[in-house]
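Input:
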Amino acid sequence: MFALVDVNNFYTSCETVFRPDLRGKPVVVVSNNDGCVISLSAEAKALGIQRGMPYFKIKADMKRQQVAVFSSNYALYADLSHRVMMTLAEMAPAVEVYSIDEAFINVASISRCLSLDTFGHQLRDRVLKHTGLTVGVGIAPTKTLAKLANFAAKRWRKTGGVVELSDNERLRKLLPLVPVHEVWGVGRRISKKLELSGIENALQLADSSTWLIRKRFSVVLERTVRELRGEACLAAEEFAPTKQHILCSRSFGQRITAYEEMHQAVCAYAERAAEKLRAEKQFCCVISVYIRTSPHADNETFYGPQASGRLAIPSNDTRDIIRVAINALEQIWKDGHRYIKAGVMLSDFFSQGVAQLNLFDEYQPRPNSNELMQTIDRLNHSGRGTVWFAGQGIQKSWAMKREMLSPGYTTRYSDLPIVR
DNA sequence: TCTGGGGTCCTAGGACCC
DNA sequence: TCTGGGGTCCTAGGACCC
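Output:
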């Protein structure tokens, strides 16, 4: 049995934890660069605001309706996420953190001690007490069904935020009430295609022929069908698998037209990517860079090239990664465009730096690379200021917009809330 | 003027091998 | 007239997730 626990309206809820005056009011959080809406309180949803709406288009409207708007404060969300996960880990032996706001819990052993429904309510109470955040809990024999139970827990008030689906009869009653596009793994494209062939709810999907689904769609959807029938195809992941790619990309606060500014941005993103790589304890060989103009500008021709370079020896030294990234940038840079975004992607990972030196290689690993990188990472996490490579520049006129950022309530001493 | 960021998995097709 | 069978690896693109 799996339990899926996730936080309701996570980002907006994080904001209202520290702003009780906003509870019960419409609140939204907008994406990086104050681009578009990514999280909404129930009251904001009721006003007809939707995820993905560009902020600049609805700004005036939201002001009129007195909607509170926040720029994304990822330091805050990551910290609260960590507190939620710690609370879950205290209560259950096997917690698989699935995303910033949700986790699967293997509850097989727990069911021997107490009813799973009771356990679900205990989880809710404890997380609320520790963090001020409300979670929904779905419990079922497969991950897909746990997700579905979680959906039901949120959709229907009288469930009290917990739905347990070990009973087959309850399951058969719930399935036809769930639209097929709410099933985990069924997105916009597939739901449209399913609806065309008359499959509109979760029960109809569960009762479809696996053979036909595989033929007309893919093995992925076939697994979903089996999971809906209670046949577990997705296992509990005991350890987080190592990443295949690491990406750092950002839109700019203002368009970039000068090479020097792009050089700075690519340096900055390469540094951040390298830092993430070290956090994963990995080394990489391939570094790719892309730059692009706005895909929305009708009167400009789109330009969005990409180039990569390879390191002879796997590395996680920022200097190596910046060097290859800038080299790639030089291959694709063209004057005359108004660039909106750039990204640096790392791939081809190894768990050790120098597995074996190439016989004819003249490259040698940098001396003391490890110590230097550790020192930089420690300094940047100590809360005493930051250090960075000069290539990033100091002015950073391209930095992203965050005009409505909330304080770092739990991540910065000077921002600690004061209780009077 | 202004439209996010970061991931995964699968499939098809091409190049190449024997 | 007629041109095999069985693989691997890589890449790009499409679907999905949060």
